[in-house]
């Protein structure tokens, strides 16, 4: 990622214009989501790791290769982020590849820890107690006072690199400990005291399919220090060595020692890469060529100000601004940049094979089960060039590995979660005309996933292809007799059926535009397979045997083995491609409305998990769209806060945060492929969105009173707008959306079927 000269000028303009321009980065709270969730839905439905948003206070740039975070947890274990707000011991600043807001793993990371006095190399010995009042955290810089060591530590970053500054508050010996955080007793470090350079790597390992195998690449780092090293060596498992090279032992690392006067500082520049040590060195030379901590921090701040300024808000409620811009910051953590400045990147699912891009960027770490819903649709509007790179990255993965991945992370197949949402991402981009990619090749790959299973058992075990596709095609649903053994998420047959039906819809829409009539006809029928797991007797989805009988006993509000991370009632509403069809199964729009009423009345709506994120907006398909406005407002007010526990569950690479942004702006992409955004009532007086194509959209809210929240009229470009949804094609032309709110529900606005989105065709000939 290049930092253009005009970006730096933008920061200077902000700093010089005083009251005329307001810094937006001040509203970002990086600690939000790093504590235990305190929202009502989290306390009722969450448990274990689901009670954590699992975000970290990352110093980074948008969609960067490496995030830099204070470290309070030394492991790269699954579901343990490097920083937790409840911890009280600091053990360094980590160059992290943690999937923000996830329950996966960190990988290929390194940590730098300063200590004073005597050399200590075991984390249990050198970790130092701290209080949160000792920390200052922002997207562009983190600093901490390490009182026990009489040291100050600070870090700022670029897309692939960082610069740290360690300052002695009294004269003393100071040591820097450099540790690759391998959980596999691997890693390599070499220190050259004469040149002041340290280099190393941390091999990456897989989880889920292929759990424990090496991923075929490493997290490389090159470190340069601006002060003469007095003493140097290596260590492993708490033991100190005079050798300058060490590898493949437990807790390996290197140390560099200095004598500092009071007020004296050490600056450390770090380059990272997934391709090679040479790549890390090139990245460092390109992004931080000089010793200038303050200048680098100013440039980083400028990048964030520019990014956040794509959406401007007018409101008297400062808390809402803090939550919104913190959400925006969280939404820009992933996907992860993987290529070096020269275009080098590790090819997908390969072993030490390096590719070279001709243009664009290559991305990975796609929490696809989550981010296809609202996160990537947000950037279809804000950063279509990013979405273009995402589509091309996914296609490259399919070409290099032979199959489109289901949930690509650490640059490998995982088959994690359910569904096949590369289909949604690629089809959505293609249908919206976003990006430059080979549509024919893209369709070949998504069609292969939809119709075929790898002939090789080894390929299937690696995570290639949809799980249980053969059963889905044979029965038109996945019966519970197929336990889906070759997956981390085993069983979950009903959820898989529902999500495959949506993915088939996505492929069908792409087939239709490409003129592949036979494929379209077959796939659009498969998009209706959701009905085969809908039990009309209960009015909800239910596990089904191969002989067609329903699983008994049935408890709709208990978690079930055939449902992914939820209950049958919660997953019943996952039919984004055909809400009118679901409504017909429920007896009509009134039945759908009653079912929606029931999930909220019973307090069974769980906002902390993604399958329900469309539920509040589904009232727009009934005679009571005003209930969408009520429920969305309630969720915005109760399930998001501006403290460490203010996210309702795993943020999952920014999906929870993107939901807040859309909801607060008064629209939501319930069916992302359709290009339709359901309308609700914004919480801001005015929203100005600078789209990625240069157009501007304004959303202006008119209230009859301070507490008005119900829509009674909408205008687009000053003309009456009757639909309760707006389309992508309309939005990207730019314009003004006026939304008029009153105290009481307007039971006519958006209530007629003609004002509402359509579902899939009932009859396909």
UniProtKB/TrEMBL annotation:
A Pfam family matched in the record: Glyco_hydro_92
Record SUPFAM superfamilies: Six-hairpin glycosidases
Span of domain Glycosyl hydrolase family 92 N-terminal: 27-273
Keywords: Calcium, Signal
Signal peptide span: 1-21
Residue intervals of the Glycosyl hydrolase family domain: 279-742
Known cofactor(s): Ca(2+)
Subunit-structure text: Monomer.
NCBIfam families with a match to the protein in the record: aman2_put
Entries under PANTHER family matching the protein: PEPTIDE N-GLYCANASE PNGASE -RELATED (PTHR12143), SECRETED PROTEIN (PTHR12143:SF39)
UniProt-recorded name of the protein: Alpha-1,2-mannosidase
Organism: Mucilaginibacter pocheonensis
Lineage, top ranks: Bacteria, Pseudomonadati, Bacteroidota, Sphingobacteriia, Sphingobacteriales
């Amino acid at each position: 990622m290049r930092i253009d000269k005009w970006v730096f000028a933008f920061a200077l303009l902000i700093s010089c214009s005083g009251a005329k321009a307001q810094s937006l980065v001040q509203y970002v709270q990086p600690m939000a989501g790093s504590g235990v969730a305190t929202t009502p839905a989290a306390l009722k439905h969450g448990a274990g790791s689901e009670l954590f948003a699992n975000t970290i206070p990352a110093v980074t740039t948008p969609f960067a290769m490496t995030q830099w975070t204070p470290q309070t947890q030394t492991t790269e274990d699954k579901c343990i982020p490097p920083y937790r707000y409840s911890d009280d011991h600091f053990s360094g600043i980590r160059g992290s590849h943690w999937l923000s807001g996830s329950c996966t793993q960190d990988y290929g990371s390194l940590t730098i820890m300063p200590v004073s006095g005597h050399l200590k190399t075991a984390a249990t010995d050198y970790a130092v107690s701290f209080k949160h009042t000792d920390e200052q955290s922002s997207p562009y810089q983190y600093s901490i006072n390490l009182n026990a060591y009489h040291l100050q530590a600070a870090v700022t970053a670029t897309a692939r690199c960082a610069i740290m500054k360690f300052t002695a508050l009294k004269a003393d010996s100071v040591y820097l400990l450099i540790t690759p955080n391998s959980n596999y007793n691997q890693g390599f470090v070499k220190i050259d005291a004469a040149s002041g350079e340290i280099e190393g790597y941390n091999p990456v390992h897989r989880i889920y399919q292929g759990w424990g195998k090496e991923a075929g690449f490493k997290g490389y780092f090159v470190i340069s220090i601006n002060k003469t090293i007095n003493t140097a060596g290596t260590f492993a498992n708490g033991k100190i060595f005079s050798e300058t090279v060490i590898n493949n032992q437990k807790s390996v690392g290197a140390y560099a020692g200095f004598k500092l006067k009071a007020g004296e500082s050490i600056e450390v520049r770090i380059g990272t890469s997934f391709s090679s040590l040479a790549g890390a060195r090139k990245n460092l030379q390109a992004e931080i060529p000089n010793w200038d901590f303050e200048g680098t921090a100013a440039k980083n701040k400028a990048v964030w100000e520019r990014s956040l300024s794509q959406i401007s808000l007018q409101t008297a409620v400062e808390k809402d601004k803090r939550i919104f811009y913190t959400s925006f910051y969280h939404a820009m953590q992933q996907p992860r940049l993987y290529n070096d400045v020269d275009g080098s990147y590790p090819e997908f699912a390969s072993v030490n094979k390096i590719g070279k891009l001709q243009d664009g960027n290559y991305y990975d770490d796609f929490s696809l089960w989550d981010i296809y819903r609202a996160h990537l649709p947000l950037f279809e509007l804000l950063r279509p060039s990013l979405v273009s790179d995402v589509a091309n990255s996914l296609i490259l993965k399919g070409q290099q590995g032979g199959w489109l991945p289901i949930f690509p992370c650490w640059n490998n197949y995982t088959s994690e979660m359910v569904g096949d949402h590369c289909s949604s991402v690629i089809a959505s981009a293609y249908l919206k005309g976003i990006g430059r990619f080979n549509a024919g090749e893209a369709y070949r790959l998504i069609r292969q996933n939809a119709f075929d299973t790898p002939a090789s058992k080894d390929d299937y075990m690696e995570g290639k292809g949809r799980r249980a596709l053969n059963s889905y095609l044979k029965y038109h649903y996945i019966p519970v007799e197929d336990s889906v053994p070759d997956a981390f998420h085993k069983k979950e047959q009903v959820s898989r059926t529902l999500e495959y039906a949506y993915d088939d819809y996505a492929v069908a829409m792409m087939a239709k535009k490409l003129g592949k009539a036979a494929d379209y006809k077959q796939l659009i029928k498969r998009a209706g397979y959701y009905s085969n797991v809908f039990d009309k007797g209960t009015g909800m989805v239910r596990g089904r045997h191969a002989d067609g009988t329903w699983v008994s006993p049935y408890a709709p509000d208990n978690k079930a083995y055939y449902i992914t991370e939820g209950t049958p009632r919660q997953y019943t509403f996952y039919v984004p491609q055909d809400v009118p069809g679901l409504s017909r199964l429920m007896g009509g729009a009134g039945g759908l409305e009653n079912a929606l009423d029931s999930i909220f009345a019973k307090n069974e709506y769980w906002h902390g998990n993604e399958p329900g994120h469309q539920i509040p907006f589904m009232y727009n398909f009934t005679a009571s769209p005003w209930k969408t406005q009520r429920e969305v407002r309630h969720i915005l007010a109760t399930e998001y806060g501006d403290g460490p526990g203010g996210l309702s569950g795993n943020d999952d690479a920014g999906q929870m945060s993107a939901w807040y942004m859309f909801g607060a702006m008064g629209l939501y992409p319930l069916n992302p492929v359709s290009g339709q955004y359901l309308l609700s009532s914004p919480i801001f007086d005015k929203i100005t969105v600078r789209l990625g194509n240069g157009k501007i959209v304004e959303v202006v809210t008119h209230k009859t009173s301070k507490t008005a929240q119900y829509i009674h009229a909408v205008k687009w470009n000053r003309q009456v707008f009757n639909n309760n949804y707006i389309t992508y094609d309309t939005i990207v032309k730019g314009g003004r959306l006026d939304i008029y709110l009153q105290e009481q529900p307007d039971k006519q606005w958006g209530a007629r079927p003609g004002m509402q989105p359509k579902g899939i065709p009932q009859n396909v000939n």
